[in-house]
Inverse folding.
């Protein structure tokens, strides 16, 4: 079965450089999430997109931006990189179901990619 | 803010013993709870998803229970094997995001 594909798997950047991570969700999944996992830490939610619109924003620095394209793939752009940005960046996708009152999308089962390991020197 | 706690942080068991991993969360208004497995430096593999209306889910040697009112979930792994050695993460879902615990790091000794 197709899984979430992330690229690149590894990248090394210098401080103040820019990096772009790509994510290809599972086919027919309409929601994409980005998480950051620092060394020895639990994953932290950055941002999510539902049907190509930003649906939620977590602890994402202003230096980072993301978008979801018409083919549902997503890109995370990171500028002015800092040493503390070194981490594993995970993309996940899900197929949203109907939520509770208000019709908000309900998080279905999340499937994660293998992650992109960013090292900032 | 949702706080997710996993106890114990680390444990070692001899092969064949049953594993019991605990997860607690502070806000019981969740949509679902998901257990993941993570090998060192690798991605997160979904093991079980329990919807907020469910009490438990089973898959092979894995069984997860959910008591939403008390904010607890338990993952049972029967007859542990060395291949079960990994970190197990509990995550609760609300408002389209997951809040993770710090994981239970498990070593199964042959």
């Amino acid at each position: 079965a197709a899984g979430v594909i992330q690229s690149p798997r590894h990248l090394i950047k210098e401080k103040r450089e820019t990096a772009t991570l790509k994510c290809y969700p599972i086919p027919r999944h309409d929601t994409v999430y980005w998480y950051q996992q620092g060394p020895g830490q639990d994953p932290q939610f950055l941002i999510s997109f539902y049907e190509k619109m930003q649906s939620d924003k977590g602890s994402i620095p202003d230096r980072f931006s993301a978008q979801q394209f018409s083919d549902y793939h997503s890109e995370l752009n990171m500028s002015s990189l800092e040493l503390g940005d070194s981490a594993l960046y995970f993309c996940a996708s899900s197929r949203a179901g109907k939520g509770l009152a208000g019709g908000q999308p309900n998080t279905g089962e999340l499937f994660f990619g293998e992650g992109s390991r960013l090292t900032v020197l | 803010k949702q706080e997710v706690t996993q106890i114990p942080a680390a444990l070692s068991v001899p092969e064949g013993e049953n594993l019991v991993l605990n997860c607690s969360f502070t806000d019981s208004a969740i949509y679902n709870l998901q257990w993941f497995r993570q090998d060192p430096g690798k991605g997160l593999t979904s093991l079980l998803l329990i919807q907020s209306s469910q009490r438990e889910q089973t898959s092979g040697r894995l069984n997860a229970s959910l008591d939403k009112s008390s904010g607890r979930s338990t993952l049972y792994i029967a007859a542990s094997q060395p291949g079960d050695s990994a970190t197990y993460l509990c995550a609760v879902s609300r408002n389209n995001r997951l809040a993770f615990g710090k994981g239970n790091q498990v070593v199964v000794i042959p």
